[in-house]
Amino acid sequence: MAPTSFTYDFSDSLLGFKGKSTFSTGLFLDGKFVDSVQAGETTDLVNPANGKHLCSVTVGCEKDVDIAVECAQRAFDNSWGIKTSGQQRGRLLLRLATLMNENIDELVALEALNSGKTYNRAYGDVVGAASVIRYYGGWADKIHGKTLEVDDSVFAYTRMEPFGVVGQIVPWCAYPIGMMSWKLGPALATGNTIVFKPSEWTPLTALRVATLIVEAGFPPGVVNIVNGYGNVVGAAISSHMGIEKVAFTGSTLVGRRIMKAAAESNLKKVTVELGGKSPTLVLDDCDLEAAAKWAAFGIIFNHGQTCCAGSRVFVQENVFDKFMEKFTAAMKAVKVGDPLHPETTQGPQVSEVHFKRVMNYIDLGKKEGATCYLGGERHGVEGFFIQPTIFTDVTSDMTIMKEEIFGPVIVVSKFRDDEELVKLANDTLYGLAAGIFSQNISRAIGLANKIRAGTVWINMYNILHPNVPFGGYKQSGFGRELGEYALENYTQVKAVLANLTGPPRSEVVWVLDSVSFNISPDPLS
User: Which GO terms describe its molecular function (predicted)?
Assistant: First the structure.
């Protein structure tokens, strides 16, 4: 049975790509698209802007993951891993980045259509994704170990070696193509092969990139993509005995399950980038106009569907009213609508399921006694749109203050002084990001050092760069994406010690902190 496919005519689009996009939506195994071994099982994608059917996508099963692992292991043993030099891997990554740029308009249109992301935001994401792939292409031939000083009788050095087959699971949330590049880039640069699972809701750009991977010249089996559901494909990847490492981005709840499965299988290495409830700190010495616009950007970016959304705002009480005036104006200026329209700044939530989840949080906030200062309702009658929503009079025990909503919903509270501010900002299970607004850089940096979060922005929000690591504290996960730090997620250190003096001496001398220990080389003595 032939795998499913996608066809969409963008000729009526007001922006960018105006052609027809056509490609397979089957499983991508060993360099080609195929049907699942359980032929015929599919899932339907809908356009979140209007709820209409887009296409069907082949759904994989546990056996498909087995096949993907076999393909990846064969590629690692025969055509990747130590069989290729860093230069060769780098050239392929650079070629892939070039192809992504050459097909940028189509990739942007697909990202916006499938996820509901606005066209302008999607454009930035695709440019960013290509930049990440290019960045790691530059790293591929610069990964090295060290020589270590021991003594004259031993030559010691380390090697940074790939794990082999790694599993990667990404969400639908903020950046489907961005998350793919964050995962593929460092894994491929370090010589690993991949079994990749996109979200069942937003797989289109991943599958289109698969065609570019073939065009770039990657050997078959280096990258394998298994579409499907988290409780089937994701669970199979997490527990597979042939996968040595798994990387996951998504909710804290699912992250726990993945860690458990990894521990109970082969103790595979795990890195997880999870949820957030990130604070924006507005100090009385800041530029209130700029702070208000950045705070709006921090929650409206991708309609609040980003793990680092600035969903809690703390404003110094003596400037609270002035800030709220400017912040309300910034939120009212948000244009909600068709993500493919050039003036839209907020598109729909990704699915009806998630739309209902966000609306439930809004209703809960009202019931718990918070003041719905702005918005709080559905926008329009078609699609999964929600009005930009502000809550005030929110206490620390309210659900909307504690839990990740993942929508265009923000809570705003007052604080008296910096000491109280630090307590409020850190009063969360999460620790992914924070924003600080102040014209006193010493004050801002002092606060940044006290905030328990993996990324702190000062006088800006949600700005990322391939060279800068990103990841969380506390229940926002561990391990880092991006930058040199991400390479550590995909390598393991091997120490090699070579004897330079021949047969064993009568004693072996260990020197620790200038204290000598004489140890017999005879293991039975």
Answer: aldehyde dehydrogenase [NAD(P)+] activity
72 lies in the same domain as 211:
yes
The Cα–Cα gap between 210 and 196 comes to 11
**Catalytic residue selected from 106, 200, 244, 273:** 273
Q: In this predicted model, what pLDDT tens digit does every residue of 46-59 receive, in sequence order?
A: 999 999 999 999 99
User: Do both 316 and 388 map to the same domain?
Assistant: yes
Could you read off the pLDDT of 79-95 as tens digits, one per residue?
A: 999 899 999 999 999 99
| Distance between CA atoms of residues 64 and 20, nearest Å | 30
The whole-angstrom separation of Cα 155 and Cα 497 is 6
Identify whether the C-beta of residue 59 lies closer than 8 Å to the C-beta of residue 230.
no
Angle of helix 119-139 relative to helix 86-102, nearest 10 degrees?
A: 160
| One-letter identity of residue 317 | E
Residues 204 and 289 in one domain: no
d(CA 298, CA 279): 10
Helix H or strand E segment including 184: helix 176-189
Q: What is the pLDDT of residues 318-348, one digit of tens each?
A: 999 999 999 999 999 999 999 999 899 999 9
What region does 511 belong to: left with phi over 0, alpha with psi -120 to 50, or beta? beta
Distance CA 284, CA 307 (A): 27
Nearby residues of 219 by Cβ (< 8 Å), 6 or more positions away? 31, 75, 79, 80
317 is catalytic: no
